[in-house]
Amino acid sequence: MLPDPRYHWRRLGSRLHRLRLAVHARGWRGALARLAERPPAPADPAAPGRPEPAAPLPAAGDGRRVLLVDVSTPRPDRDSGSLRAFNLMRVLAESGDRVEFLPDDRVDAGAYTDALRLLGVVVHTGAGAYPHWFARHLRGFDVLVVSRYHLAEFLVPLARRIAPGTRIVLDTVDLHHLRERREADLGGDRRLRRLAAITRRRELRAVAEADVTWVVSPVEAALLREALPQARVEVLPNLHQVEETPAGFAEREGLLFVGGARHPPNVDALRWLLAEIFPLVRARLPDCALHVVGDGLAAAVAGLPLPPGVRLHGHVPDLSPLLRRCRVGLAPLRFGAGVKGKINLCMAAGMPVVATACAAEGMHARDGVELLVADAAAAFAEAVARLHGDEALWTRLARAGTDNVRNHFSFDSARATIAASFPTARC
């Protein structure tokens, strides 16, 4: 049975909405540039810093058969969401589930696709259109995990018609409407606030239609449960492994900011950091260097005067040398949602962080215990200078930060959520 063809119109509406947001946020030139983007050339699969694949697993077994759908193949060395998706599939495969992945763009991402296959994941590149592919294959899956509401809003109704017995999980990654609303509030932008309200209605509808919804933090879980008391919402956090022998205070120096330019909160944070925060830090620490890592950030701050000491690295496939060498991580985000992977990365590497309250949201972290929190430029700079120079404070926060990752962002945390969300494994 082929599904209702109206799903095509729902998908078109979703893409038009995303284009309208891009036009509003970046102008027509920025939107057209985004439409013209191509996936980056895959990195050398043997390059250091690429996710270490587990031993290949058999393609079949007694576990549940799980299909994951996302906009593209995860690129774990490029963004936090990709690292979370990659590690989620790793956890599922290591648990004995039969994991398959369908990228919405259908593109073979080279080494990134190969890394999934080394985990035992079956990757469907070059697959046909959803109605025909789902009609042929979906009934064979126990679970369908759809990432992001704008894919779910047309895939969930399609899946319900074709395979009503398949458990459907919506992985929000972060609450898009919350991020958009906060951006609108920061800039006092009424048009963006209206767009955020539209996104909220669509996102809540997608949550209501799923069997289970995953969010990355208890804060977002509480927001959804208040808006939709009948919805089943579970917390699936970012997934990280802690560095067991991190470098100590004396082996480190300088500051680290990580974040790609495709995520608007990162661009705003970096501009604020360069314009208002780092010059105050340099006044206190004249020799302090700021290392800036992320795809497209150099272009995003082109034309801005760069304070002395700024090092623009662009995309760095292997972050481990900088994570061992820098002393303080920075997360000066003024809007956003979800859990901040840049904080997880630093904490997991034994590097304490200075963050805004927005960035620290959902991290299970307390000001002065696991990290330092400051929202004004002068207070943020003061916290950075203090943490960079106080070995006792630095050591205490570094240890508490790694404990935080172990306790709240481990693979074991994911397994508990999966067990609560999925049907019982086959015997």
From TrEMBL:
Pfam families: Glyco_trans_1_4
Organism of derivation: Luteimonas endophytica
Protein name, entry field: Glycosyltransferase
One MF annotation (Gene Ontology) recorded for this entry: glycosyltransferase activity
Biased composition (Pro residues): 39-56
EC class name: transferase
Domain of life: Bacteria
E.C. number(s) listed in UniProt: 2.4.-.-
Region span, Disordered: 39-60
Protein's UniProt keywords contain Glycosyltransferase: yes
Record keywords: Glycosyltransferase, Transferase
Gene3D superfamilies to which the protein is assigned, alphabetical: Glycogen Phosphorylase B
